[in-house]
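An instance follows:
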Amino acid sequence: MSMQAMGQRAKAAARQLARATTEQKNAALNALADRLMADCGEILAANAIDVAEAKANGLSAALIDRLLLNEKRLAGIAADQRSVATLPDPVGEIFEASTLPNGLKVHKQRVPLGVLGVIYEARPNVTVDVAGLALKTGNAVILRGGSETLNSNRALVASLQRALADTGFSSDSIQFIDDADRARVTELLSLDEYVDMIIPRGGAGLHKFCREHSRIPVITGGIGICHLFVDESADLDAALRIIFNAKTQRPSVCNALDTALVHRHVAAEFLPRIVEHLSAAGVTFRADASAQPYLQGDSRVSPAGPDDFDMEWLSLVLGLKVVDTLDEAMEHIAAHSTAHSDGILTRDDDHAARFIAEVDSAAVYVNASTRFTDGAQLGLGAEVAISTQRLHARGPMGLRELTTYKWVIVGAGHVRP
């Protein structure tokens, strides 16, 4: 496999995609959805091989859940492509238009980024989500999934490329590194002549490796150590529902809750309620020394270890800590959060305003579950990643976040004096 040749083909495909109309791209997205369902048997058979190998290799239940495809999940993935086809196309959008005193007409116009390199682990749905978003925004993409999804991704990309060919697009618009050798990742990170942005989706080690070795700009994020602070003024019944949802609705994803911080004035009443309500769903607990006196003798609660509040659990485990003030809660979040999704449960508008202003996370919540940090939930359609950095894009990266812009200056024979 020549990564250089793959980059060259992607660059050529990106030039074709940049010329495509919205109607052509939407037709291709609907064709992708149709083809996925037509190839359902082939795709699920390939996925079954990956799942069997993952179980044999002792992968965690959380990773196997991320890896698993079934007919319902595949139908949902296909439906997401149809949804993306209905969304406004940001490419060509004109904004910040003005006419200068000398008569020059100036505006900014959205254009595709070019070629995306996306590196991810264990989630074959990402293959299709990224491909669809890239296509809608006129970007070519080079995909590198994990070794545990190799068979699934082969089948998915073959299906996607057939749909591209059927609708007049180059199959090089969506390419897949069909090689589990990690050397291919290093080679991808060096293709700065052809690839315009690297998006890693995986653990902290992958993000660190990309930042340290890439010659291409890297968008990092997707690692979520997420917090909810129960203020002394919170509606405790509502807070219990929100915490339950944030922890249990899908515990294996990055926006699931990891730590509940509880104000001391409500701790005696509320901490036992959390344990009683969430343990029924299989949740176990890691309690800081500040929380343990309120939960003495409860076998469902273990003392928190020195690193427990820096864990992205991705499972049915919840950290518990008692704080005396809003400031202490925000200090804990600043020390342990990964700037993904953090929230406050309160009826105090001043506390809510301070939390919004001072907590430096990509998504900040007031009286809502952290599970809404998701492109589809926030109206973006499927997302390519969750960015937790400050430059270019932050939070769920949907269509607009996969574009850049150019300045367009229109004159009438203007020359600079």
Remarks:
- The chain has 13 helices and 16 strands.
- The chain has two domains: 3-219+397-410, 226-372.
